[in-house]
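Explain this record to help learners:
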Amino acid sequence: MLRLGDTAPDFEAETTQGSINFHDWIGESWCVLFSHPKDFTPVCTTELGYMAKIKPEFDKRNVKVIGISVDPITSHAEWSKDIKETTGYAPNYPIIGDRDLRISKLYGMLSSLAGNSSEGRTAADNQTVRNVYVIAPDKSVKLIITYPMSTGRNFDELLRVIDSLQLTAHHKVATPVNWKHGEDVIIVPAVSDDDAKQMFPKGWDAPKPYMRIVPQPQ
């Protein structure tokens, strides 16, 4: 089972934008990998179109986006036409073809007993291939969310989480419940008061000793 903090499994794959080695492709960027149980499914069609629409927001955050669907890339190319027609946006990021189910198994989304071909499999057979992964530049997994097939994913929320993760990585702060960009944040407990004084010379509000609140660093 893949857990937060684990190294994202590396792999080689064919995508709609050519062959990649996953870790090399990520490079020094952050990454969002989001998976789909099958091409030509209605909820996923809306998701891929919306992701294409807001991809510039991920670009601004140094986040590479890549999809994976349990079908060959020739099928992805045909599906992309439907996505453009129905949503107004064609995928502008690579989509991995996982026709042999290898990567879905590598990430624990399908059982090792699922076979080795997407041929003849239905979306219901692949319904567990609905994960979103956020991967840091050091290739560690920072977020895993699994959605049911009937519920479209909230990619605006994904941007919020990435903003929070990047604040933690760069400034050693955490974000409170329902936090939005620009609101106050919390100094992480691992930072001592002495170190916090160096990092936040204007001080902080502390309703409790373990809760040190500061304006969001810029």
Summary: The domain at 12-151 is CATH 3.40.30.10 (Glutaredoxin). The chain has a mean pLDDT of 97. Residues 65 and 143 are 14 Å apart (CA to CA). The chain is about 30% helix and 20% strand.
